[in-house]
Amino acid sequence: MLNAILVGYLIDYFAVGDQGGGKTNALIYATVIAVMTLFISVGHYAFDYHLECLGLQLRSAISSLVYEKVTRLSQGAFGNTAAGNIVNHMSSDVHKLIMMFFFFNYFWITPIKLVLVFGLLYMSLGISALPGIALLLSFIPLQIYLGKVFANLRKTVGGLTDERVKITSEVIKGIRAIKMYTWEEPFRRIIQESRRSGALRSCNL
């Protein structure tokens, strides 16, 4: 945000011209912008690296817990547990937890940034900034609604993925009987249909 302010000062300098010390100020602004850009780039990648490491540690821990839980299930409980659910927990669901670390900070920093941006707009444009601020705020209910829609779609796709993995696992377990009775083609069509349904829902996302 400070970069944007300094860029605005630089634009004012080139638009108005050198007026008593303006050149020195412009050089200071340009230097600060360059240093801040370098600092942001280095800090951003270092921050992402540490978040990735933390996410991988969490993924390993949760995968170990799921594996330990599966090994302790009784025969009856294991028969009622779909293999697709276990695979999803150890792959896609855990990956969402990793991504949580990257987006968690936006929950608390976004309101602060909004207040600062709206304040700067009002200081720069005065009363003329209010319609723009109102327009930006009007998108918040739309974003909430779209978030709920996408969450429902992802839940549906997750169920289809569980079903596809379950069918594939059952086919692999009974591959000898399938080969003996030459049922390859019917089961191939069933698996392809489940994949096609999941792919179509994923494309809709």
Secondary structure elements and pairings:
Elements lengths: L1 H15 L5 H50 L3 H5 L3 H8 L1 H12 L2 H20 L3 H45 L1 H6 L3 H21 L1
Molecular structure report:
The chain has nine helices and no strands. It has 205 residues and is mainly α. The chain has two domains: 1-104; 131-205. The protein is elongated, with a radius of gyration of 27 Å. It starts with a helix and ends with a helix.
Low-confidence runs: none
Number of domains: 2
Describe the largest sheet.
Answer: none
Order of helices and strands: HHHHHHHHH
- Give the overall shape: elongated
What is the CA-atom radius of gyration, in angstroms? 27 Å
Amount of beta strand: under 5%
Sheet/helix structural class: mainly alpha
| First and last CA, distance | 32 Å
Tally of individual helices = 9
Q: Could you give the count of β-strands?
A: 0
The oligomeric status of these chains comes to single chain
Mean pLDDT: 76
Helix content: over 70%
Question: What does this entry show, briefly?
Answer:
The protein is mainly alpha-helical and 205 residues long. It is built from nine helices and no strands. α1 packs antiparallel against α2 (22-71) and α7 runs antiparallel to α9 (184-204).
